[in-house]
Amino acid sequence: MSTTVRPTKRQKVISSAVSLFRSTHDVKKVSLETIAEEARVSPTTIYNCFGNREALVYEVIKELVRANLERNRALIRSELPFPRKLIGIMSGKLALASQMNGEVIEKMVRQDKKIAPFVDEVYEQEVKPLWKELLADGKKQGYIDPALDDEALLIYLDVLKAGFSVRPEVLRDFKENMGLIERLMRLMFYGFMKKDIDLFRKEEE
Q: CATH number for the domain including 116?
């Protein structure tokens, strides 16, 4: 006996919206009627499920965040070498940004007041623990300095998160800023020093 669960109309609408948003350069031009046609439901069904187009956009954002989170969780907990995990996580983030319209990216980065509680909860409850797992794995495999502690990492992530919320255009205009984003990622993971300096003069103690 088959145990396949058929997607609900709500799930079909969200999946169709995600697909259409990814295939257009202007999310605002994707009408509810177009989404309804793609999902093979009536426009009335969408209004009944979501109320309006704005509410549907927020559900699309939630779906994208959840999908990216599950992908990263699987990567981090896999048996892959640490560099492959890191490359996979970064390539996933870049692919997500490149596929989505600026309207959606900006809502995610700026944390529009309607989506902010969801993003904050996921960040605190899901993202931070996964980065701690990645940090521990990187130390175990010899790629991360054993002296780096969880507290420093989490504060650093908070700083990065706050920084992108102040400059959302960096991710919103992703394709135009590809070179800058690559430099920022290199700075994030390697710092800006080519040679180590004993800044705190610990070697002299």
A: 1.10.357
